[in-house]
Inverse folding.
């Protein structure tokens, strides 16, 4: 099958269309899910490293000013693409795996539509940059909604014969489905929440926020680590290399988890 003439000088697009025609949408969506997941785990590690500079407020303030520049704000807005896509598509996969319900075309349409709505909403709040919401009310509501979403998935996961590691990966996925987009939105509903040193310190001293941040950090690192190890098992033929890569992933993520917990506990 030949492509239209207007695509002949676009080799990247030709390649993409070729994959779509030979492998189908499912293949592209699967790889988009994995790539977005890798992007998010890298961002989380960078985020933990940046927050570690809170020990020196002047250094953190300089970094915050750099990240507040227009170009960084634009890339931060673009980060909403992998965030919301990975969360919504992950929800689609959970529904299929645990409830054997598959309406791919319809659900993928919803994934794309809701992703666009989320990005527009986030961009609107980023442009306003002067609003404020109550952290306690926001996160209490967010946690309640997240637990309501997580509970039915956890009940279904418990009935499967899969390993405890697989089950925990699915349960953390259900929990993060709501919390991760909510966290990103909160940072721009409360514009100073992620940039003002004093406000960050005050927020991290609140018991509810401490529990949520630790739970969020551990859930993301476990969920992402399991995903990275799964990719390694799928594409590395040598089992010894798989074990080495898996061990490295576990060690690196465990160190970042320890760094994050120590940071939260030291404030």
């Amino acid at each position: 099958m030949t492509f239209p003439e207007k695509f002949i000088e676009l080799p990247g697009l030709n390649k993409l269309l070729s994959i779509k025609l030979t492998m189908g949408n499912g293949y592209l969506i699967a790889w988009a899910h994995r790539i977005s997941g890798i992007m998010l785990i890298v961002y989380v590690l960078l985020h933990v490293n940046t927050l570690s500079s809170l020990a020196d407020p002047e250094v953190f303030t300089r970094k915050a000013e750099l990240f507040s520049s227009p170009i960084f704000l634009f890339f931060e807005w673009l980060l909403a693409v992998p965030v919301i896509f990975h969360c919504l598509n992950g929800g689609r996969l959970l529904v299929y795996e645990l409830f054997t319900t598959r309406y791919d075309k319809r659900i993928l349409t919803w994934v794309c539509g809701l992703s666009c709505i989320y990005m527009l909403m986030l961009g609107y709040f980023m442009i306003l940059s002067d609003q404020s919401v109550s952290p306690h009310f926001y996160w209490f509501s967010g946690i309640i909604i997240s637990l309501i979403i997580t509970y039915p998935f956890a009940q279904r996961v418990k009935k499967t014969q899969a390993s405890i590691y697989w089950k925990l990966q699915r349960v953390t996925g259900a929990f993060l489905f709501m919390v991760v987009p909510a966290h990103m939105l909160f940072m721009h509903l409360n514009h100073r929440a992620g940039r003002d040193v004093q406000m960050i310190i005050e927020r991290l001293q609140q018991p509810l926020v401490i529990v949520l941040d630790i739970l969020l950090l551990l859930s993301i690192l476990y969920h992402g680590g399991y995903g990275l190890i799964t990719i390694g098992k799928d594409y590395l033929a040598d089992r010894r290399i798989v074990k080495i890569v898996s061990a490295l992933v576990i060690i690196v993520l465990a160190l970042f988890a320890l760094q994050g917990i120590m940071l939260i506990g030291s404030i």
Remarks:
- The chain has one domain: 5-266.
- Residues 1-17 have pLDDT under 50 and may be disordered.
- The longest helix spans residues 207-235.
